[in-house]
Amino acid sequence: MSQPWPPAPGQPQQPHQPPQAPYGAPAPGGFPPPMAPPAARQGNAGLAVALGVVVTLVAAGIYGAVLKAVDGASIGYAALAVGALIGAVVGKVGGRGAALPVIAAVLGLAGLYLGQVFGMALITADVAHATLTETVFSHFDLVHAVWKEYLGPIDVVFYLLAGAGGFQVAKKLGA
Question: The whole model's pTM is what?
Fold first, then answer.
């Protein structure tokens, strides 16, 4: 076996060093350089509003059917769910936009109103032994009168829940 030559007198022995990486390259076995932050998600505001309108109509239909099933008794969680569902679609599809949470809140209010009117139309058609289309198109004044009679002070809270749910969920998911 051959021994390395001893260092010259007065010279410290140099420890064995691994090869150096070029300047700026990560060291072997070290951590990789930090990654750039992900790009902000771009959304499609027009598609978000269009889908928001579709979800508003669907949620209103479901809410109206629930109202008929419980004979017109309002359910606060259902009002909040209408707004939150609309806000989720608008926020996810639309991305970041200052106007989208406001649009989701307005659609939440519209969804709750349309749901209540649809529920009252279903109940009125059932009581009058008429078809739903006949009740809505021929006797909408009666449906609207029933809806106005049905409203109570608690409905203000339900409308606030629907609007706030749409706004908050759209804002949270759009970021």
Answer: 0.73
